Amino acid sequence: MRLTHYRTLLITVGCALMPSLSLKAQDLIISLKQKPGDFTLSASGKSASLYTSSTDYPGVIRAVNNLKADITLVTDAAPELITDKAPSDKEVVIVGTLGKSILIDQLIQNKKLDGSAIAGKWEAFLTQVVEKPFPGVDRALVIAGSDKRGTTFGIYDLSKQIGVSPWYWWADVPAKKSNSLFVSGRYVSGEPAVKYRGIFINDEEPALGRWAVEKYGGFNHSFYEKVFELILRLKGNYLWPAMWWAGFNADDPLNPQLADEYGVVMGTSHHEPMMRAHAEWKKTGVGEWNYETNAPTLQKFWREGIERMGTRESIVTLAMRGDGDMAMSADTKTALLERIVKDQRDIIQDVTKNDATKIPQLWAIYKEVQDYYDKGMRVPDDVTLLFCDDNWGNIRKLPKIDDKPRSGGYGIYYHFDYVGDPRNYKWLNTNPIIKVWEQMHLAYSYGVDRIWIVNVGDIKPMEFPISFFLDYAWDPKKWNQNNVEEYTRQWSEQQFGKEYATDIADIISKYTKFNGRRKPELLTPETYSLVNYNEAEQVVSDYRKLEKKAESIYEKIPPAQKDAFYQLVLYPVKACANLNDLYFTTGKNRLYASQGRLATDELAERAKKLYQTDKDLSSHYNKTLAGGKWNNLMNQIHIGYTYWQDPKEAVMPEVKTIENPANAEMGVAVEGSEKYWTSSSPEAVLPEFNSYQKSKRYFEIFNRGQTAFDYSITANVPWLKLSQTKGRIEKELRVVAEIDWTKAPAGITKAQITIAGPSGKPIVIYANVNNVSTAGKEPIGFIETDRYISIEAEHFDKAVTSKEITWQVLPDYGRTLSGVTISPVTARSLNIDKESPHLEYNLFLTDTATAKVQLYLGTTLSFNANEGLRLGISFDDESPQIININKSETPKSWGKVVEDNARLVVTQHKVSAGKHVLKYWAIDPGIVLQKIVVDAGGVKPSYLGPPESHRLLK
Questions:
Q1: Do 731 and 599 touch, CB atoms closer than 8 A?
Q2: pTM
Q3: 746 — phi, psi (to 5°)?
């Protein structure tokens, strides 16, 4: 199924509105003037009346009532809602479903409306201005749907276009006020590419669960009505409900009744078969959750679930896992699971009196269940195979491209939130949408288009990736690696208007990228290097700049937008900037304590303040934001983990305090080392100065006592420049050294920096200065400095393609700049020859070396029948080394990969000094290259790897 677009519905308004994400921004015309033939939805304090039929679906009538409220929010002019009457006004809005609405059917019968584009389609709708639709009526705006949800989607699509965000309630996004609304044209939408598109509310304690209890008394129909409406406004249609302690069907009989009325298809999670919540088993189950020993009891339990389901739209989960979402026992037999599925389908058929093949069902191939699938377990063809990711956003398995089609098709269960190994991540959004796009594009390309369901935790604060996931499921062909950034900008404009949309999109993209490097729950004071490549300091600086940018926008936007901006932008940025600073400050405190620095205790106090700031930010979200509307939503503990499960309470990271002597004592530390010097033995050496990289280097002079002292610094060569040469030190001072390359001698020089302090015994620092001489061998490409070359993947010098294979850059993918992968992702595995697809990187090595090539890759798993994904690496014309990146995967190695959000593979090569071409060869699709580091013996420990090396182009 694919989207079909006819001439686009055009809306003209009396003030600026947001472009709908279902339309291209350039297709919307925004004007203060009404054009001839435009339909007046609202003008001069009056809105056109809404007409509907009582014979239509109750869910459609609910949505029409919401449209009435939406128009009122935007225009302050409430339209009249009229049911079962012939339109009599000059201009009217007519809403209804084909075959259910008398008015719509009359328009089609009288050839005033052509419904052939949507008739018989799944969830399709059209919106059109119709001239002279009925006697006495000049013009009508018609919203017609092919079915219940089609009409509902048409209604909410109009709401979104006139300025009501789908997140108007869940994120307090205010409607965009307009005095006038005019409509022209015809717009047809549908069918969606993915049939069932939904969310899974999960891991709902201690946040959403406590909030729901406080506001609604639990997960009852009053709560779920808000969820149903949100899903439909986002053009989703499917829900797995909260299930840690709640039972959707049992807790409130109105829950399933209203879901069906709204038009939301219900299911139960991957481990809750036959429409029964696990919470129900805990309350009423008798005996073990074990089919071998307790089959009659389980059959009765499951039968009751299907009886209760009745004829309501549902997708029934089949098979079973261990009790409470635990793995099945190691001795569980495939034959037993197949028997369970057969018995469950017999129950379905017996209860519903329908052929079981006519009742939508799924089998979730989750965790250890995949082992049974891999060993040959199969279910009937009409059952949807719901493949799963690894709980960390990496799809574990997909159908083979040449597999025989299944009538039940394939689905994906994906995660934005997770409780489990190697660590929970529940607090904030850590899902860059380019990664979501890359994995779901992979799934869709392999024919997975029946069900897409995503674990969204507490719903908040996953607003942005939820929007993308459901929009992408509706039309995967609309969004690609080249316009994902535009999606973020459009979404930001939809929530906050055009003025700051680009800047807000940049903030959202960057903070999710930064969070995606390593989940906040996994951060420690040791994550980023305190001494190498200025890494930790740069990470915090980048976050603080983002925070400052967000705060600047917050101060400028209208008061009505501030609550929404705080939820969607400011809080996650401030909280994550603060958290990263907390760990950085704690790490510095511990380092300073080991060096005996007088500033140690000051850093301890700063860390305590940052820890308190974290609490204050969460408290503001809970207690103050939107008048306390979201109390408890930021309860999630995110500091103090010691293993996979979150602690019961947040725990301040341990800081050190020390006692310093009364007298002054000078210490010196140099960039790139955790050591410190109080004398010149052993030698203190700065990282290399290189005329290509032209890096500045620093050293620090600090006080190990309580009395201030005077210092002076001298260099033994005039071309070594220092940011300070003398002064007085209370606690510490950073001195930056750089080279005047126009005066430095060619070749390698060892310069000295002498620091005199209070003891009368100076400390000498050595600086190795390499003013590279390349007479007769001018380097081209990336230049080795400090015995390494670091390259961002997209900075290749040549991309060799073939008739079938091209290369794609994935902007902002991964931990540093971007990713590069081959297209299409369904390509057959390649055999390497001289002309096969590869990337070439020109580089220059200054010395002969045994070089290690470190490849930083995306975290893609072996989705191709567990064969592993392969690539090749070579220098110049040597035979490529073939690497299978997944072949030796173990639970431990997988855990490190997802913790680091990168896969590091290494090859080793003998390489001479001079020019070379490094070649990265494509073999299997799905691998994403992020970064290449050629280590000639100089790479130092860091999380993100060395910053990119200097590059000379021809």
A1: yes
A2: 0.95
A3: -65, 155
